[in-house]
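[step 3/7] fold_predict: job queued, chain A
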Amino acid sequence: MTDDVKTVVWKERRLLFSQRGGRTQLILTLLVPAALFAVVMPWQEGRGYFDSPVVIMAGIFIPMLIVMLTIPESIAGERERHTLETLLASRLSGRTILFGKLIVSIGLALFISLVAFIVGFAVANVTDWTGQLVFYSPMIAVASITLSFLVASLSASAGVLISLKATTVREAQQKLMAAVMFPVLLLGIAGTFVLTIEAVRDQIMGIIDRIDPIVLFLVIAVVLIVTCYFLIRAAMKRFQRARLTLD
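[step 4/7] structure written:
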């Protein structure tokens, strides 16, 4: 099965960089969302960037955006190019095809997140150089890298499930963006409204101050892992040759 997964990964990686105007255009498209967090914000924050929540935000939003650009091609792209039937007729198992496609999207998102993490480190030090290198705090570094992987996995799992039901790549991208961004926007609007009420804001800040950051991180990680598990199970159940061919 390992060799079969490698075959799917090789195919998906080559296909990914041959679509939409070629390798250069795709690379530029993928790097644009990372540039904001890896260059602009470190340049503005200087050394304060290393202890800033912006680092964790980068670890969340960069993989999310990268996956939203790449994972819709997984099944909807095959269906749109009329190559899905050929893929399903191969000796590869459905699980192998599914995991191969997930690995490519998650791997690319994690790679770009790590590049942004390193570039941000360099930019922040150069911008506010005092003769000594400053590094990320261990908690910030671990939380950022771990969340990058978990968010990429969660977004890819949701994306491939949506892609299984979509007829075109554009439809898959729109549905995935709505599924991922709508809850974020809703929470942001609700949070902004709640924080305008002074009494409520003081209570919330008091609760936050009493929460152990490590415990909060572990709770979030467990929630992401469990959600990702159920999404992958749903995608595996949906990924049936006969059903996809009829669709």
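[step 5/7] annotate
Residues 94-127 form the longest helix (34 residues).
The chain has eleven helices and no strands.
exit 0
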